[in-house]
């Protein structure tokens, strides 16, 4: 039998929504080292619009981005998780959730880092 | 001070990821009454690929879809939340989370319906 | 019977690709008056990465954006065509195509404004 | 000095819009061999809604999809151009444009195959 969610559980749900939104809204965007900063800034400000979203920090990882572009003999590539470091703070009714996405064993992993009481 | 997340909290985070992914991957897709069923089926099967996602049910709400198309004097419109009813079951390490998105007061609301122990 | 495309026809095809990319990559992005400028800048720089794309100018139309947000009693909304003015210059093998998207009769219309010889 | 576009040029512009739309709407979608058919069907029907679009044929290329999933030790991956074969017919005011996207030298290439008079 399921129970109604607690406030911290809803806070984690809200945090997940922001991560899924961020990833699937912007994955596929054409990106190069020159355009990486404006994209990171836009992602941060776009997702911070969403409810309960205190702050979003996005960094485009320049080394793997340059490698992927060089390997393809291209000038740009498409944004995907391995080019991103993201951290986010959600505050839902006073419960603060810290989350991040970073590379682990070669794959981007979204995780909850901490939940306040 | 933040604590490590509990299993039910991570399960809710995973549920949120799926909702954000679903919404921001498919919002904006050209949709008409004739193409609604294939889109709903594709959304279900695409999101069910994601980790810990037991089942996804998507229904395109035909009445508001037809109204929006008629009001615009068009043949199709772009998918957005008010044309969708979604329910989803996440199972993360044995913790089952039921979630849904439906219209409330004129806006699509994503919510956690229940969390198992 | 179909013929091989001419250079100006391919230039117009390339211009269309950029418009479809721009629209469907960024439609659905959470946007508010405060985040409109960073989003416009990111769209410009992202699409300028694409081949044969000389320049992209994006302006978020603040009046309809503010009206939509106020009408919804919200703090932000989702990006869609009626909040955007876009102009773009494509140069394909010396053939320059100027294109734009703007509101016409209440709908966003993408069009070719001129093709050089 | 630029000239007004001809009907075949506008037809090619319209064809480009559909390709950019298709790619950037659906790139990033979670996809596996089991969900490939429903996704291909939804893409076809969604893009066929757009103006002047006579037909869209999408095939997910199963061999590279299976290889990418196996190489990642995963159950699914994200849709990108190298998993897609697409052909499309646009009819704009009687001018028929045939276009396709397929792999060339390791990269997905969108091209105009023929333009009718």
UniProtKB/TrEMBL annotation, chains A, B, C, D:
Any one GO biological process: folic acid biosynthetic process
Annotated Dihydroneopterin aldolase MtpD C-terminal domain residues: 7-112
InterPro entries: DHN_aldolase_MptD, MptD_sf, MtpD_C
Pfam family, one: DHNA
This enzyme's EC code(s): 4.1.2.25
Domain of life: Archaea
Pathway: Cofactor biosynthesis; tetrahydrofolate biosynthesis; 2-amino-4-hydroxy-6-hydroxymethyl-7,8-dihydropteridine diphosphate from 7,8-dihydroneopterin triphosphate: step 3/4
Keyword annotations from UniProtKB, A to Z: Folate biosynthesis, Lyase
Enzyme class: lyase
Record-listed substrate binding positions: 14, 110
GO molecular function, one term: dihydroneopterin aldolase activity
Catalysed reaction equations from the record: 7,8-dihydroneopterin = 6-hydroxymethyl-7,8-dihydropterin + glycolaldehyde
Gene3D superfamilies: 7,8-dihydroneopterin aldolase (MptD)
Free-text function comment from the UniProt entry: Catalyzes the conversion of 7,8-dihydroneopterin (H2Neo) to 6-hydroxymethyl-7,8-dihydropterin (6-HMD).
Similarity-based family: Belongs to the archaeal dihydroneopterin aldolase family.
Quaternary assembly: Homotetramer.
UniProt name for this protein: Dihydroneopterin aldolase
């Amino acid at each position: 039998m399921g129970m109604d969610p607690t406030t911290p559980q809803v806070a984690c749900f809200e945090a997940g929504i922001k991560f899924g939104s961020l990833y699937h809204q912007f994955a596929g965007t054409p990106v190069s080292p020159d355009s990486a900063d404006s994209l990171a800034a836009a992602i941060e400000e776009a997702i911070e619009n969403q409810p309960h979203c205190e702050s979003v920090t996005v960094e485009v990882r320049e080394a793997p981005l340059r490698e992927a572009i060089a390997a393809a003999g291209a000038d740009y590539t498409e944004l995907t998780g391995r080019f991103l470091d993201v951290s986010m703070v959600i505050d839902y009714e006073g419960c603060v959730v810290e989350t991040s996405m970073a590379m682990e064993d070669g794959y981007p992993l979204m995780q909850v880092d901490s939940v306040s009481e």
